[in-house]
Amino acid sequence: MSTEKTHTHEFQAEVRQLLDIVIHSLYTDREIFVRELVSNASDALEKMRLLQLTEKSVFDDQLPLEINISTDEAARTLTFSDYGIGMTRAELTENLGTIAHSGSKAFVQAMKQGGKDGSNVIGQFGVGFYSAFMVASEVKVYSHSWNNDAEHLVWSSDGATGYNIEEAPGQHRGCKLVLQLKEEDAEYAKPERIKQILAKYSNFVGFPINLNGDRINNIEALWLKGKSEVTEEQYKEFYKFASHSFDEPKYTFHFNADAPLNINALLFAPTSNSELYGMGQMEPGVALYSRRVLIDQHPKKFLPEWMRFIRGVVDSEDLPLNISRETMQDSVLFRKLGQTVQGRLLKFLEREAEGDAKKYEEFYKDFSRFLKEGVATDFDNRNAIAKLLRFESSLTADTETISFAGYVSRMKEEQKNIYYQIGSNRKTIEAGPYLEAFKAQGCEVLFLYEAIDDYVVSALSEFDGKKLTAVNSNDVDLGESSIEGDSLSTDDADKLCAWLKENLQGRVQEVRIGKRLVSSPAMAVMPDGEMSPQLRQMMKAMKNEDFGSAQVVLEINPAHAIVRKLAGVTASNPELSGLLAQQLLDNALLSAGLLDDPQTMINRMHKIMEQALA
Ligand code: ADP
Known about the structure:
There is one protein chain. By secondary structure, the chain is α+β, with helices and mostly antiparallel strands. The chain is built from 19 helices and 22 strands. A hairpin with an 8-residue loop joins strand 4 and strand 5. The structure holds adenosine-5'-diphosphate.
């Protein structure tokens, strides 16, 4: 048997860490524990409501689905009770003694590593219950499960190292949490204070909440109202409620439709992206209702996975109430509803992006990776998502961006393709050999800076009928460029190409006279069907295997001094010209991001330097 000081059960190590963070680091917004506990109670009631549809025998079946909160200033206690599903002994141990979700573990990790603003995300990662220990020196959870055979129990803990579970006869179905408040947190035993907090966070809870016996929330379904009946403030409040967060919605999209499907949707895009904090993948955040009754809080496959950052509610009278989640996901109606919402949402974002580019840019900075994931994975919406992408380009000012449509609108008359270059940043791209000819012709090139962009362009392959073409690909044709000044004759240039091909045997597929070089002597072009340098690097990193060297096409610039002079010494100085040929190729490969073996190149450079000094 346990005494007051000894615990019969120890917390899992992660729980102890979590408690430590919750109690000591999250000083601000301590009041959120009320929201967290009410939200747990509401979840338990929701589960009960669903169980009652199928289970014949339920403990305390007559009890209403509601939440009761009571305060006791003299005893300095605050009590939350719900007639939800309750917990068995095993569930108390599992749910309140361990952290099952990987998300919470990621949360602990992230908080330890740098302490982002944790209160913003605390609710999203299932650490809710433990927030009670921010204000309580002891928490008791009295419970009886909905199952008739379960025990009457009390779980208790001081939030330090462990907890006890003992029998406690006379419990109702559900959970009753009694918080013994810390002296400095006595304010939470005052009814006015709790009322004020509930007004802030719990207006939209779908079950009645009573405080000391008085009903305090009116269940409001904002999404069923018309736009003109809802204020900006109400939208924000609802967003915070629905998304468990403290940031404000970046975009609010409210629409009601009657035909062909009845849809009342209230959707939000957040301001901050919690996945950027290393918190793991978000769960789908759009809940599905029918006539105000929650059908599924996190419906899978309703919206495509990349839209998981969207929060809010979709309510349709056309959805039957008693449909099981599994059957629902296969129904035509469910799919149609999903498609309609997706389409409207994408159109909405497109309009917003055009209407207020600056605001969209802020959104895009944090959320572009979802859109890009969408282009790569969501075939149905691919073209619509492509309209939402933004890139820097050779014609934009630093950090200014344009859309594909913007690019197309300023394409030159004879231009057929949309050109892009993948590179780590503007400086690197602009210093490389590929851009020269495009610049000379005044032809715009999009700059793509992220690894995923390679997938995006290959998944998309075209926009508005224009082929997306990498500047280093074989089929770039910018027409003849007029070479000014001295240049090798075509004959001499052809001879040099043949000589180079011979000397670079096994390393190049072809050597030819380039039409698009201005101030660089040579460049590497990817033959059709070769994987891009970026993909190649990624595959190498992932599989840790060697694909052999890339077989490129080497294009030379017959007007460049190095090329002209090289042509003159191939016969008279075969040793030096041999070294220079290899070096010319390596330089081109380096610019292309394809040089696998820098050491060989460095050794060769040393030989060339020796000869230069001789
Ligand atoms: P989350 O609610 O995000 O899962 P919590 O730490 O708040 O994380 O709660 C852990 C688990 O404890 C819940 O998932 C739920 O199974 C259980 N739980 C918490 N509060 C209640 C309650 N009032 N009634 C029934 N189960 C509860």
